[in-house]
């Protein structure tokens, strides 16, 4: 065997893969990985089929079909009052994760520092390290996981090149507030710092709260990559469709990388989504759809011995088991999967140092009968 000098020597199989595999092996209800257990719209599937039958089966333009980019531009203006040029400022990607990786690749160079907030979605740090960048992580504490902006100011240095935000946040379900936006704006003003805003759960914001997209704020928009996912919007995570918004000078660099990663994205799906997005109710109704699931799941969990943490957005509910057992969250997640038949994600997996606050994450993007069955099993814990 030829020796391999690994670029990610500390990286193994993701916790999502591990827990989903254990769930399948044990026949447990899989509330670990974030995907629905119900079908996406038959109408949308029919539109994809029609696009295939009509011959839309060859490469799309590198940046994506113009018809889809125009629909995204219209949607973004309608929601956030932001004008993005579909020709130069919107690119269709193979899911949100590809958009995130591409944005990091486009602007991060060796020794550049990137600030991330933990618990953090697990694709950020590896991408930074692959580019030779330095991860500066700031650990947030339960139950509210609020960002201590005074600490962020202390982390800023002459080498700080990017701040990565995630709102609504995976795994915690927290959202940025207007006060957070004001703090962020003051910090980056007159600084050469980019923002990468992971907004794949943009439509999953509850209780009448506002999604504070970077697109809303011109001073932030001019320095931001915004990653968005169609998979979360259309309940079809396996399609791996998303897009990136960025000002033209950043999108130019983004596309230099994008063209050599995937070149272009699934053509018939782009044709279908462009048509499907014309119906605003597709995304305007999503918040109430998932809030009903959140409320139903929380009501069921309130009868268990777990302590519910706040959930303002996303389709994840975190629970604390502090005081119930001294087990590590990784061990308890495995035991509950094997003994009680419900798979979760231990939140320590989202910390660089595997910080264990004795918290598990459950996905509630499931049918009501699935959630009820899971709750019945968790009541026995």
Summarize the structure.
The chain contains 15 helices and 13 strands. The protein has helices at residues 15-26, 42-53, 66-80, 96-107, 124-130, 149-155, 178-188, 218-221, 230-234, 248-261, 267-276, 281-284, 286-301, 329-340, 368-378; strands at 29-30, 90-93, 113-118, 134-139, 160-166, 194-198, 224-229, 242-245, 307-308, 316-320, 342-343, 345-346, 359-363. The mean pLDDT is 97.
Explained architecture:
The protein has 15 helices and 13 strands. The chain is an alpha/beta fold and 381 residues long. It has 2 domains: 15-40 and 284-378, Aspartate Aminotransferase, domain 1, CATH 3.90.1150.10; 55-279, Aspartate Aminotransferase, domain 2. Strand 3, helix 5 and strand 4 (134-139) form a beta-alpha-beta unit. Helix 4 packs parallel to helix 5 (124-130). It starts with 14 loop residues before the first helix and ends with a helix. The mean pLDDT is 97.
């Amino acid at each position: 065997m030829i020796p391999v000098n690994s670029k990610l020597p500390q990286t193994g199989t993701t916790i999502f893969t591990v827990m989903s595999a254990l769930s399948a092996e044990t026949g447990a209800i899989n509330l670990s990985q974030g995907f629905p257990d119900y079908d996406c719209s038959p109408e949308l599937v029919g539109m994809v089929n029609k696009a295939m039958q009509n011959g839309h089966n060859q490469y799309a333009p590198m940046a994506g079909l113009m018809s889809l980019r125009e629909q995204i531009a219209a949607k973004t203006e309608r929601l956030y009052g932001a004008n993005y040029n579909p020709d130069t400022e919107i690119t269709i990607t193979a899911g949100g994760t590809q958009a995130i990786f591409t944005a990091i690749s486009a602007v991060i160079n060796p020794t550049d520092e990137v600030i991330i907030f933990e618990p953090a979605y697990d694709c950020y740090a590896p991408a930074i390290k692959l580019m030779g960048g330095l991860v500066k992580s700031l650990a947030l504490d339960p139950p509210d996981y609020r960002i201590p902006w005074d600490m962020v100011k202390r982390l800023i240095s002459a080498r700080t090149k990017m701040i990565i935000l995630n709102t609504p946040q995976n795994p915690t379900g927290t959202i940025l507030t207007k006060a957070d936006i004001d703090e962020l704006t003051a910090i980056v003003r007159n600084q050469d710092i980019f923002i990468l805003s992971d907004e794949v759960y943009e439509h999953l914001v509850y209780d009448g709260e506002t999604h504070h997209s970077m697109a809303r704020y011109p001073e932030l928009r001019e320095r931001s990559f915004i990653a968005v996912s169609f998979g979360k919007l259309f309940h079809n995570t396996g399609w791996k469709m998303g897009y990136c918004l960025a000002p033209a000078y950043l999108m130019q660099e983004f596309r230099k990388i994008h063209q050599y990663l995937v070149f272009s994205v699934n053509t018939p799906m782009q044709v279908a989504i462009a048509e499907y997005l014309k119906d605003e109710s597709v995304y305007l109704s999503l918040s109430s759809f998932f809030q009903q699931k959140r409320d139903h799941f929380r009501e069921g969990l309130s009868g268990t011995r777990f302590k519910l943490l706040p959930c303002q957005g996303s389709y994840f509910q975190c629970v604390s088991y502090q005081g119930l057992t001294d087990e590590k969250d990784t061990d308890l997640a495995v035991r509950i999967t094997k003994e009680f038949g419900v798979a979760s994600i231990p939140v320590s997996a989202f910390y660089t140092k595997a910080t264990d606050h004795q918290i598990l994450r459950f996905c509630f993007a499931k049918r009501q009968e699935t959630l009820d069955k899971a709750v019945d099993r968790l009541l026995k814990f």
